[in-house]
Amino acid sequence: MMSRMLVLGVLALAVALAASAPASSTPPPGATALCRDGTYSFSKHRSGTCSHHGGVARWLTGSGSSNGASGRPTSVQLGRTTLLAPRTRTSGCTLGANPDRRCSPGAYYSGLTQGVLCSSSFRTSSIRNVLQSEKYAVEQEYGLALAHYGSTLEIDHIVSLELGGSNDIANLFPEKANANPGYHVKDRLENKLHDLVCAGSLSLRSVQRAIASNWQLLYKQVYGVSP
To answer: For the chain, what is the domain count?
Structure first.
């Protein structure tokens, strides 16, 4: 009886240790990043990878934050900011699932061509440059209290960086997570559009104009269903 209890105790201890042990050091096939919470990401693009899992702990491919042996981010010539429509208002903007086009018409960088965006060395982190003061300015234009909203709301790029979007305030708007649809749905569309542009299925300029005009309609055209 005693030996059976000992065996059962050892088995229970082994199960407990196995449950508390860290995940295998061998990532699953197709994983591109290890997130800080221990999960794996299979994202093909750096933009948004592990954004809701504490960020990236370690890149698993050669497409991380460094460029070759130097370990330095690739230098990107942005060119000039080109607005997709005139920006006619800077206050009293209407907050909703879509940006108020009068305040946030969308904008892109002329230097971010298809060749640049689809290069294996391109990283959105090398061009992301939205200061907190600019985020506050967007919040103020849309009548929001100046605050950090965490995961409930983000100051989003209308034309995403992976599609050549500018950091100019004309290309930013406050987007809620639960705006029905919210920014999670738009993120999915942006990743898909990047794939289509790089495959040559869609032109970069047409995608930039379409996502700035009505991203939900574009979503339906791409996926065949409304977001």
So the answer is: 2
